[in-house]
Amino acid sequence: MDKKFSTPKGFGEILDHTFQLTKNRFKDLFMILLIFMGPVYLVQAILQLSSGTSFFREVGSGGAWFEQILTSFEETGTFDSSSLGADIGLIIIGIVSAFLAPIAEAAILFTLNHVRRNEEYTVGSVIKQAFSRFWPIMGSSILFGLISLGIIIVPLAIVGVTGGVVATTVNPIVGILLGVVLFLGFAVLVGLLLTRWSFYFGSVVLDRVSPGLGRSWRLTRKRTWVLMGLYIVFYFIISSISFGVQMTFGMVLGNSVLLTLISNLVTLVTTMIFSVGYGVMYLDAKTRHDADDLKEMIEEFKTV
Question: Is the pLDDT of residue 222 over 70?
Fold first, then answer.
């Protein structure tokens, strides 16, 4: 077994291991994502071209060049009956992506597991393994999505009703302040709960436990704050990269097809980083959990 996977890691070590694996296995990981998402992005570009979007540089109305660039994004979002078919096509692409993306992430998890065990693998073999878990992945993901939706909507409703009642009956400023405090408190609570259940995916893929929510809850015990902090760091890293690319190329290309293709390629890279980070976090939690179980067995053996 790879030594870097066999020992528990701290916050910084997980980040460092994530970027090392991303660098060392970039070709295989990028190929996995490209196989799944490449055709989807290609069809998306064709639909954009068919709706009249320029390939190299899309500009809108206005005098100065920056006004033309800004209006290109605004005008693209307006309704046009001639592009209705393209819009419907993009919606279908979004739905297809929702089914393909989890399988691509599962293939990345299998890749990391082979690396952990020092086993040989091919891109085709890990993709085949990922498809073997298709239905458990879909079922568990839908369940997790519904749970996530519920624990987000309910607190928002409580914050809205409570803040509104206080604002109308007591004082508007007090109502706003109470709403902000409740929102922040519920945001932390929701983040902690989603973190505790987030490793369901790794459990379904690698450990073949469906829906995996219970195992995820056990794996994240005593590590919830650290794991949530890692999620936040990965979010800021990915958001910064995506925002930087969008701003840099968007100022030159406008809302063109080329900008979309560049953004999609960057999305593949950022998705790779997050998927590897998630895999490292899951395998680290698994190592810690297995070690704790072993310690408990030893202690029980000593007391017998």
Answer: yes
Please say whether the beta carbons of 89 and 43 come within 8 A.
yes
Which DSSP category does 78 fall into?
S
> Are the beta carbons of 204 and 137 closer than 8 angstroms?
yes
pLDDT tens-digit map of 250-281: 777 777 778 888 888 999 999 999 999 999 99
For 234-288, the DSSP string reads HHHHHHHHHHHHHHHHHHHHBS-HHHHHHHHHHHHHHHHHHHHHHHHHHHHHHHH
On whether the CB atoms of residues 283 and 116 are closer than 8 A, the answer is yes
Structure tokens at 68: 């033309």
| Chain segment 39-64, per-residue pLDDT in tens | 988 888 888 787 777 777 655 555 55
Opening angle at CA 189, ends 188 and 195, nearest 5: 90
d(CA 28, CA 145): 29
H-assigned helices in the chain = 3-6, 11-24, 26-50, 65-76, 84-116, 123-131, 134-169, 172-197, 200-206, 213-219, 224-253, 257-303
**pLDDT of amino acid 175:** 81
Max distance between CA atoms of the chain, in angstroms, equals 85
In whole angstroms, give the CA distance from residue 12 to residue 295. 26
* Mutual angle of helices 84-116 and 26-50, in 10-degree steps: 180
Q: Which residues pair with 58 in a beta bridge?
A: 254
**Whose structure tokens read 């987000």?**
152
Question: Token pair 């393909």 is at which residue?
Answer: 100
Residue type, 199: F
Q: Cα dist. 196→136, 147, 155, 191, 214 in Å?
A: 19, 12, 18, 9, 9
